[in-house]
Task: structure prediction
Amino acid sequence: MALPGLRGAEHLGFTVPDLEEAHRFFVDVIGCTHVYTLPAMRRDDDWMREHLNVDPRSVVREIRFYRCGFGPNFEVFEYEPADDQRPQPRNSDLGGHHVAFYVDDLDVAVAALEAAGVRMLGAPTASRNASEGQRWVYFLSPWGMQFELVSYPHGKQYEQEAEVRLWHPARPGE
Result:
């Protein structure tokens, strides 16, 4: 059974160690727009465990919301560090993840990130097989979270015969 009324991804939420650093990265380097902020959240009951699956005494210092082009919004949390805080997961770890930004010109976007001092993980790579036509490259935020730039301005190979295409940020209504 499909989820009734599904429209798409509304936001991605993640935790950062320093919200001011993250704000500068998302606004000044990536180009997102800060939309609004929520204040600290602290509870003396089990609400945090029941609703967020964290220690009930966890404290959210602040939450900020960003709009990034046509993609899903970002909900960015800064918690007070917990005693059992885990390190940043790699893609190969359970819960490993990355956020990919579609750009019109990969080489121009890479040059902008490099000029901003962002750590790139290798050089742009051309995809093969069903993803042929796409180029991509990973990079790291100042706190070590993995991001990706991806571009396929002329489409991907799979689209030649596909009945359903993946959503494309440059053509959000298709």
About this structure: The radius of gyration is 18 Å. The first strand starts at residue 11 and ends at 15. The first helix runs from residue 19 to 30. The mean pLDDT is 93.
